[in-house]
Design a protein that fits this description.
The protein is of the alpha/beta class. The chain is built from ten helices and 14 strands. The strands form three sheets. It has a six-stranded mixed beta sheet, sandwiched between helices. A hairpin with a 2-residue loop joins strand 4 and strand 5.
């Protein structure tokens, strides 16, 4: 089956010569959740804007369900819902009318029952008759999400959807995302909250300086680039490690009271058992031990740092 989104050698250069995107290649499968991570100015929003037809590429091609986003704009845009970063809404219109109007803009017939379903899912139903200017920033963010879902899109883009909003909205948002995933909707999100990507995404892409550094299955990425550590709090401090432990991933911290051991998760039990036996043979004893695995945030920082 062909991917629902295909990005081929995509570039974007502005009039001042700034290269926002540099040869991006990306495919997104129907029904998956892809998280795009990157620092401010990395190119995430530019990439989303081009796929959604808001900005024109300088080179390359983007296909959505086989349709070119430039040549077949109406066909591709009708399939896409977008939650932008900016709060752009008509302040003097009601919530219900705003969301209903957005559905009509995408060529869909009026469907009050669907609008009600979306508003209830986002805890907005009791605000349906309120004007936008009467809502808090978090509530306005919910309205943007409702507008994006109003025309029942096959693809949903979430550009920093939970930036600056409360925990309740984040929880509501991810509940809706899970329901959409179950119904077959493809979701691409950008976020500064890397723990959200770690929890919800199927694949993770890291973009920096207009270049896509990698796109990998989340579990495979964690296994390949993540590190596992065993931390041992010693009974008595050591001045130095015996020479026999040199080069095996064991580190003595500055105060001499803690050992840190980096190991291969595939041979976890064997490597730890061997280490503990050798420590005992060298009369090195510990009073406590714990393990730690690198998070997606650690991997992201390492990748972006290496690309500078």
């Amino acid at each position: 089956m062909a991917p629902i989104i295909s990005v081929q050698n995509l570039t974007k250069t502005y009039a001042n010569g700034f290269e926002a995107l540099k040869g991006i290649n990306l495919t997104v499968e129907k029904g998956e959740i892809l998280a795009l991570l990157g620092p401010n100015g990395a190119g995430k929003t530019t990439l989303i804007s081009i796929i959604c037809g808001i900005a024109n590429p300088s080179g390359g091609q983007v296909l959505v369900a086989g349709h070119d986003v430039v040549k077949d704009f109406r066909a591709t845009r009708s399939m896409i819902g977008l939650v932008p970063q900016e709060l752009t809404t008509d302040q003097f219109e009601t919530v219900f009318n705003t969301v209903s109007f957005s559905r009509g803009l995408h060529g869909k017939k009026a469907d009050p029952a669907h609008i009600e379903k979306v508003l209830r899912a986002l805890s907005l139903w009791d605000k349906k008759d309120n004007m936008l200017r009467q809502l808090s920033g978090g509530m306005k963010r919910r309205v943007l999400i409702a507008k994006a879902l109003s025309h029942e899109p096959d693809i949903l883009f979430l550009d920093e959807p939970t930036a600056g909003v409360d925990v309740t909205l984040r929880k509501d948002m991810w509940n809706v995302v899970e329901q959409l995933r179950a119904s077959g909707v493809t979701i691409i999100l950008t976020t500064h909250y890397i723990e959200e990507a770690e929890e919800i995404a199927d694949r993770v892409g890291v973009i920096n300086g207009g270049q896509l550094l990698l796109v990998e299955d989340k579990a495979a990425l964690m296994a390949k680039l993540g590190r596992k550590q065993l931390i041992l709090d010693l009974t008595e401090p050591l001045e130095r490690l015996p020479d026999c432990f040199a080069g095996n991933g064991l580190t003595l911290e500055a105060d001499g009271c803690r050992l840190t051991y980096e190991f291969d998760a595939d041979n976890e039990q064997e490597s730890i058992a061997t280490l503990l036996t050798r420590l005992g043979e060298n009369n090195i004893h510990f009073k406590d031990l714990s393990t730690r695995q690198s998070s997606l945030a650690d991997i992201f920082v390492a990748l972006v740092g290496a690309a500078k």
